[in-house]
Amino acid sequence: MRSAILTISDTRDLGDDPSGSRLAELAAECGEIVTRELVTDDLDAIAAKLRELVQRSDIDCILTTGGTGFAARDNTPEATRAVIEREAPGIAEAMRRETAKHTPFAMLSRSVCGIAGNTLIVNMPGKPKAVEECFEVIRPVLKHAIELLCGRTRH
């Protein structure tokens, strides 16, 4: 799996990005981190960055952290919906269901997951603990999801 890690934040930078750092560590256990970037919470900026990353042939999966809550500047789900062609609701539902066992705040996550071209996009919250919990939920299916998107559909 070749991943891009994208942190969405108005207040962080790559030198001070605990959730992005943790997400990169976890994703590196499953494959290669092709790029790690940060973009502001601006809806158009997030969508533009997602479109740019989707166009890259060396990225299979874009894992985002941040911008999935109820705050006025939490625009990640809307930006993701503007880019994806097909939603993958089961992934987001599973993350919310399983992480709700640890905190009731999981039900406030508006994370969206979906497919743009041959790229899977997965939104995660902006806290390291939430990233860990969400990643552990999806870890068992990531490789298979990427294989399917790459056209490897034989069982």
Model description:
- It is a single chain.
- By secondary structure, the chain is an alpha/beta fold.
- The protein has a single domain, classed as 3-Layer(aba) Sandwich (Molybdenum Cofactor Biosythetic Enzyme, Chain A).
- Helices cover 41% and strands 21% of the residues.
- The chain has a six-stranded mixed sheet with strand order 2-1-3-6-5-4, with helices on both faces.
- A hairpin with a 2-residue loop joins strand 5 and strand 6.
- The model has no long low-confidence stretch (mean pLDDT 96).
Keywords:
Molybdenum Cofactor Biosythetic Enzyme, Chain A, six-stranded mixed sheet, 5 helices, 155 residues
Summarize this structure briefly.
This protein is of the alpha/beta class and about 160 residues long. It contains 5 helices and 6 strands; from the N terminus they run βαβαβαβαββα.
